[in-house]
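Field guide to reading this record: the first block holds the primary sequence, the second block holds the structure written as discrete tokens, and the final block holds curator observations. Each block starts with its own label. This record concerns LysR family transcriptional regulator, catalogued under organism Inhella crocodyli.

BLOCK 1 — SEQUENCE
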Amino acid sequence: MRLRHIEVFHAIMQAGSISGAAQLLHISQPAVTKVLQHAELQLGMALFDRVRGKLHPTPEARRLFVEIDKLNRDLVAIRRLAAQLKAGDQDQLRVMATPTLGASLLPGAMTVWAKAFPDSRCVLATNHTKEIVSALLLGEADMALSLQDPHHPGITAEVLASGPMMALCPLRSPEARVEGDLPLADIQSELIAMVEDDPLGAQVMNAFGAQGVQPRTRITVQTYQLARALVESGLGLSVVDPFTATSADRQLVRVRPLKPSIPVHLHLLTAAKAPLPQVGRKLVKILAERTQAALAALDP
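BLOCK 2 — STRUCTURE
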């Protein structure tokens, strides 16, 4: 299929008729019909059944549409980029982060960045590390933040900051009565745990096991931000990454490093052969400085 065939086929599938497709493409109905007929001739099969003057997609057409719809989204993105380049708007930054880092680190850093680059634009998105890697490799993102190094040959991972896993203790809990490191064996409160497939959560549970400690737990959560919110409501104690801990409400919780320590790294992820633009390098600098300052403030 040629590109014009794809455009016309996609328009017909969207509009449901020849006339609707013609309106979407701003061409005449005979032109749509001609392109469709040529596409079917080249494919050697009908894409639509004609019943009482209406078009009904064949099963083959529906399967074809799934892939063509993906291609159409790429074409839309290409047209948008071309328009931006024509207008001289090359300073759009596309940033991705895991949900936890998106909520804890990006808001403050973006506030500083937006003031430094008032004429630049930024698209922010959150996703899991696996999907982030795919987006970087496909050129759908310029940079990303994750607590994991994906160890992918096409991805460059740089450590921006490091800190230990932290225990968030409700102020009325026995663990909040003492400052300093919190031995795992001293944890009496009910633990708000992470889901089993969370890498850091698994490290925490392995550390409990190595100490011969079996924590009491009934509630399991998927994100550290939710764990932090539940601790602030007094529901129990949780162990979170240090970057989430920096956003905890100190009027509601006490933050204590675990003993033994479980180190965590904040990784900047970029495509290996795609250098960051100036606006991206500035955001990285802001993120590193603000994160390191926030981690320093966690020290008792």
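BLOCK 3 — OBSERVATIONS
Residues 59-86 form the longest helix (28 residues).
The two ends are 66 Å apart (CA to CA).
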